């Protein structure tokens, strides 16, 4: 069973960016976490 990386990347807006013409990658660590699109949209709808 393979992981559908393109589908997963679509859920995280930050991963749509490119750096020097290459897709952005994200290395997770204990200090930060990226939020999926549904969370970003919920926060935006609540506060803006």
UniProtKB/TrEMBL annotation:
**Top enzyme category:** transferase
The EC code for this enzyme is 2.8.1.7
User: What keywords tag this UniProt record?
Assistant: Transferase
Matching InterPro entries: Aminotrans_V_dom, PyrdxlP-dep_Trfase, PyrdxlP-dep_Trfase_major, PyrdxlP-dep_Trfase_small
Q: Does the keyword rRNA-binding apply?
A: no
Which segments constitute the Aminotransferase class V domain? 25-47
- Full protein name: Putative cysteine desulfurase
Q: What is the lineage of its organism?
A: unclassified sequences, metagenomes, organismal metagenomes
Instruction: Kindly indicate whether the keyword Transferase belongs to this entry.
Output: yes
């Amino acid at each position: 069973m393979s992981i559908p990386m393109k589908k997963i990347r679509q859920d995280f807006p930050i991963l749509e960016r490119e750096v020097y013409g290459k897709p952005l990658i994200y290395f997770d660590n204990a200090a930060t976490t990226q939020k999926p699109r549904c969370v970003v949209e919920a926060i935006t709808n609540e506060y803006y």
